[in-house]
């Protein structure tokens, strides 16, 4: 999982770094058995070598912790798995 997250970060954003697993969750255990893993990658370096798939349009936006909280409060960030991953990060602090 950690290696896959590191690989995806590089592919999607051009950033690289060393990750560690900080959490796992079951998105909908009532009807599914899949898991979602949260990998924290700190001290990243922008290599400028992103390589998204042809059909992907990706824009990397860097936000401060306060900007992320604002995005959640005002509804700009609504994905429950993303918000839960951020909470898992907060628990690490």
UniProtKB/TrEMBL annotation:
Identification of the protein by name: NUDIX hydrolase
Upper taxonomic lineage: Bacteria, Bacillati, Bacillota, Bacilli, Bacillales
Taxonomy, superkingdom: Bacteria
InterPro entries according to UniProt: NUDIX_hydrolase-like_dom_sf
